[in-house]
Amino acid sequence: MNDLINEYWTRTQKPETEETIDVDWTAEYSRQRKDRMHDAIEDYLNDDRVDARRAYEEMLSCIDNTIQYHKSSQEKAVELKELMLGHRPMESLHSFSLGS
Length: 100
Fold this sequence. Notes:
mainly alpha, flat, 3 helices
């Protein structure tokens, strides 16, 4: 039964007459990433209400936001690792009860 399912999907997804297209997905992603950056820059440059200084400052702001995001993620990851390794804060002596 399993072979019949595989055979069905193989035939319906890729007919024998269709040539296989080899795509370099890493290069494709790089090209698309550059295109997205180009579109954003072009958006700033084509907006008459935005001067070069504002475009520059907003780009720097985006970079600062990325730095802050990764910094807080790193701090959280380091804290988790410390907990996983058994490095836990000491409980206050006042929180322990010795009984009545």
